[in-house]
Amino acid sequence: MPRPSGDAAPTGGNPFTALPNQVPPQNLEAEEAVLGGILLDPEAMARVADILHPDAFYVAAHREIFRTALALYGQNKPTDLTSMTTWLADAGQLDKVGGAMRLVQLLERVIGTAAIDQYARLVMDKYLRRQLIKVGNDVMALGFDQRRPLSGLLDEAEQKIFSISKERPQGGLVPTVEILTSTFNEIESRSMGDSVAGIPVNFY
Asked: Sign (positive/negative) of CA torsion 14, 15, 18, 22?
């Protein structure tokens, strides 16, 4: 799976601050499945709007595309290909996300939206894991702060960890088997002649 160049893995000799050659948790296929799904079926936006926010996406272009979808959704406008392309172009962001062809690619990568909420929770799962890593580094830095009272440091560390738990989707994170089941059921519901190659998703 390609690794985005914008977010390199942390490096360094201190084992408490970095895991060499490790890429932060992310699932690009799940991100594409969400974005392609809302382009394919604008009504699917209602199923993910309360689960995800733009920062949950690992790829910067994906964040901008979802931010656009949220803006359209908030104005009761469809998130179809034409609407999304027009909004991004008017905002001067279309080239930054890869152009109109990138939106077409996302649309063509999906076969349906049956599992879009599960994909959204998978994206959120990876985001929360990245946040946990960030908070872990912050808490470690607090531990090295010898100038402040320990009680204050512990309170701040607790607040940082609690902030992550508050972002967890109310419905919880969905097991991989449920995503696979929904996807396979949708594939089987289509006739062989109408089948379209869909998005391959790696679960890890």
From this structure: positive
Q: Give the Cα separation of 141 and 127 in Å (integer).
A: 21
**At residue 182, does pLDDT exceed 60?**
no
Whose tokens are 């799904």? That residue is: 37
In a domain, 193, yes or no: no
**CATH code for position 162:** 1.10.860.10
Within 10 angstroms of residue 26's Cβ, the number of other Cβ atoms is 20
**Other beta carbons within 10 Å of 99:** 14
pLDDT in tens, 130-181: 998 888 888 888 889 899 999 888 988 888 888 887 777 655 544 444 444 4
Q: Which domain holds residue 173?
A: 28-184
The model carries a pTM of: 0.71
